[in-house]
Amino acid sequence: MSTANFVADTTVLTGRSMKHITRSLDTIITVTITPIALMLLFVFVLGGAINTGPDSGSYVNYLLPGIMLITIASGIGYTSYRLFMDLQGGIFERFQSMPIARSSVLWAHVLTSLVSNMISVGLVVLVSLLIGFRTGASVLAWLGVAGILVLFTLALTWVAVIAGLSAKTVDGAGAFAYPLIFLPFISSAFVPTNTMPAPVAWFAEHQPVTPIVDTIRALFAEQPVTGDIWIALAWCVGILVVAYGFATAIYRRRISRG
Q1: Mean per-residue pLDDT, 42-56
Q2: What is the largest CA-CA distance in the chain?
Q3: TM spans, by residue (predicted)?
């Protein structure tokens, strides 16, 4: 199967998946409204009681990077759900009987996740601007933020593909996302890690969310990103490569049995 066919097949199947999202109002509400509501809660109810240090500026500036990651973690749960439903509905078997690139089926779900999550993040940023988020970040810094978010989304989406291909029930297909949504709460996303008890602080400083959040925050604040950016990229690329390898191996086994 040629590269041109792969691109064409993936484009068609991505359009199919995007239509499913736009027709599912509860998906849009859950993925977009919930993180926005969480941001409003922390900014207007809890933010006044949280001390993020003298140089952090307004709390919404401190908070936004973590809310972005929560938005993405919420959205990728639907990728595994849609993939599981396609498997159960026999769509994969139907696609296998057609002259299309087999890998395009997975990539369509991945690209749908990427597009829908970037739209959700864009809406979150828009609301944050309305409630006081301000940044003097350059175009290059914004591109850096976008690149990190794209990598993070791709990494988690391929983890979602593994869950969707391996799940035995529809609840199991989406349940894996809950720990990912919770992970930013044990990081520097909401409060500095030095305010946490020592064991919690150690975990927060050695999990992937903290360097990603710190890098995005530094880019927005026009501050040096130091070594955090390399740690963030290493986490994103490492998870992406490992998850992609496992996902494609599981997919090959599934279609070979079919």
Answers
A1: 69
A2: 62
A3: 28-50, 62-84, 105-133, 139-163, 175-193, 229-251
> Of 21-30, 42-51, 211-220, 247-256, which one has max mean pLDDT?
211-220
For residues 214 and 52, is the Cβ–Cβ distance under 8 A? no
Cα dihedral sign for 32, 38, 42, 45? positive
Q: Is there a contact between 167 and 247 (Cβ–Cβ < 8 Å)?
A: no
Most confident of 14-23, 24-33, 184-193: 184-193
Domain residues for the domain of 26 are 3-257
Q: What is the 3-state secondary structure (H, E, C) of the chain?
A: CCHHHHHHHHHHHHHHHHHHHHCCHHHHHHHHHHHHHHHHHHHHHHHHHCCCCCCCCCHHHHHHHHHHHHHHHHHHHHHHHHHHHHHHCCHHHHHHCCCCCCHHHHHHHHHHHHHHHHHHHHHHHHHHHHCCCCCCCCHHHHHHHHHHHHHHHHHHHHHHHHHHHHCCCHHHHHHCHHHHHHHHHHCCCCCCHHHCCHHHHHHHHCCCHHHHHHHHHHHHCCCCCCCHHHHHHHHHHHHHHHHHHHHHHHHHHHHHHC
Asked whether residue 217 carries a pLDDT value surpassing 70, the answer given is: yes
Percent of the chain with pLDDT over 90: 41
Q: Work out how many domains the chain is built from and give that number.
A: 1
Short-list 162, 179, 153, 169, CA closest to 71? 153
**How many Å apart are CA 22 and CA 229, to the nearest integer?**
34
Q: Average model confidence (pLDDT) for the chain?
A: 84
Can you give the pTM of this predicted structure? 0.89
